[in-house]
Amino acid sequence: MRWTREPLYKTSGWFNQEPLTTFDETLRFPIALEEIYRLIRSDYGISIRKEEIKIQNGYIYFRPFSDYILQIIFQPQFYTRLPKLIFQTNYAKENFNQLVKEFLEELDGVCKTDPESLTTEKLYDHLLKVICFDALWVFKLADGLHTVLHYFSESVLKSLYALLIKDPNPSNYSNLLIGFPNKLFEADKAFWQVVQDKLSREEYLSRYGYRATDATLFKEVVGEDLEEKIEIFKKIAAPNFDKLTRVATERRKKRESFIDKNFRNWVPFGRSFFNKALALAREYITVREDRRFYYTMGTYPIRRACLELGSRVDFLNEPSDIFFMTKNEVGAAVRDSKAINKEEIRERIASRKTNWQIWRKKTPPTVIEG
Amino acid sequence: MTILKGIPASVGKTRGKTRVILSPKDFSEFKGGDILVTKSTNPEWTPLLAVAKAVVTDTGGALCHAAIISREYGIPAVVGTQNATEVLKGGQEIEVDGSKGMIRVLSE
Question: In B21-106, where does DSSP find H-type helix?
Fold first, then answer.
């Protein structure tokens, strides 16, 4: 059986570059995946087998995309429930904006819970809840016509560009989609404003700071060790974001005029199709960028709860050692730590940490069999 | 002349000095106008791209984080080279062709 990491490389490039830890693999991911599978079943009636994702040495592997398609299209629910998406066409973007608003409000509520104020048992329950919360919102932000439309519109634009424009480099179509506002660009600009003392740290952190920097909870989120990063960036000459935006807009306009001059006008309705595809791709380009931004924000409350829990487990050398404990070990430590052979667990944690350090130094194979 | 190939992610051609950055601890070595060579870029790294001359990564595809951000910043980018961080050394003069997905080492 063939397993691949390609989807991660192609669309994110950074997610799961560091291997998952024991905690991620035995507790967080199984709970999150179970929640996502449950939502897919309840929303679409489609079942996805649990064994469709494999984790080897902390790295996530998927079945080839075609396998998922084959699995889904043979389920009758796919045909009965899917048409509901079509009725969302006119308000897909609005729907996405509404989802984002709800997500940010709920996230704000979740982040207001101070893990330090909870008893250990309640803290563990809170941890499980925030894991489900994160999974629920990753699903919600992905689920809907806005996702279909942003993939579809860009794919169509790319194909039409190659077909209708006399350009030896068809990948230039991407220059038609630059210079629009998006959260990633906005967050970078805000960071540089903090470096230049034009924006307060608190404001930056509340709006952009708590994004994950990898799939593993072990990795700090963006806003942690902010002061250290600010000091480093102060030594680098700050960019002129207005100029960057202006240049991006100029490049886009230049590409537009290139298209006007190099359009294969002999294709019937070509211009009309192209303009419609371009308008749709531009409408949904912010969905593509912003969705990635919001996906990464639910990690922080989980990490925060974990570290607090780790600080209460008396046999750990440091709170972050909790990331090298299994689900059962964490559960036992929360229920009755006296019944645990602490020396044995400490040895296991040390051994897992060593293995993790070895895995992170190696580049995982893109494809594996087995 | 060493030539590396990757996925063309952001068009444009430029020359400059490489700075191999493997973790945020190395950020302080980076100077505005350097060519950023790294395994991948995550949200913690993207402010660096705003001052980079070009970006080269080991992993990624045309829709990856580094590619999208590079296009916004208008800097050439070649992603998915597999081993740029191993082959390239800091301070080397290289040419990055973001349209063809090629990197040429001009000075060893």
Answer: 46-49, 65-73, 84-87
Structural domain total, chain A: 1
Question: Known catalytic residue: B65?
Answer: yes
What φ, ψ does residue B106 adopt, rounded to 5°? -95, -30
Domain that holds residue A291: 82-362
- Substitution target from B56, B72, B97 for chain A, most A beta carbons within 10 A: B72
The pTM assigned to this predicted structure is 0.90
**Burial category of A30 from C-beta neighbours within 10 Å (exposed 0-12, middle 13-18, buried 19 and up):** middle
| Helix extents (H) in B31-79 | 46-49, 65-73
What is the spatial distance between Cα B85 and Cα B69, in angstroms, rounded to a whole number? 20
How would you label A250-277 residue by residue, b for 16+ Cβ within 10 Å and e otherwise?
Answer: ebbeebeebbeeeeeeeeeebeeebeeb
pLDDT in tens, A94-130: 999 999 999 999 999 999 999 999 999 999 999 999 9
Give contacts of A 73-92 with B, CB under 8 A.
none
A65 in any annotated domain: no
Is A8 within the bounds of a domain? no
Q: Is A43 inside a domain boundary?
A: no
Residue A42 CB: number of other CB atoms within 10 A?
A: 8
H-helix or E-strand spanning residue B95: strand B93-97
In sequence order, what DSSP letters do the residues of A21-74 get, joined into one string? -HHIIIIIHHHHHHHHHHHHHHHH-----GGGEEEETTEEEE--HHHHHHHHHT
Nearest to A12 among B28, B30, B65 (CB): B65
**pLDDT score of A288 more than 80:** yes
Q: Is A52 within a domain?
A: no
Note whether A11 and A60 are within 8 A (CB): no
A 233-272 residues inside an 8 A Cβ radius of B: 233, 235-239, 241, 244, 247-248, 251
Catalytic residue among B65, B97, B102, B105: B65
Q: Distance between CA atoms of A79 and A76, rounded to whole angstroms?
A: 6
The predicted complex's ipTM stands at: 0.92
Measured CA to CA, the distance from residue A127 to residue A132 in angstroms comes to: 9
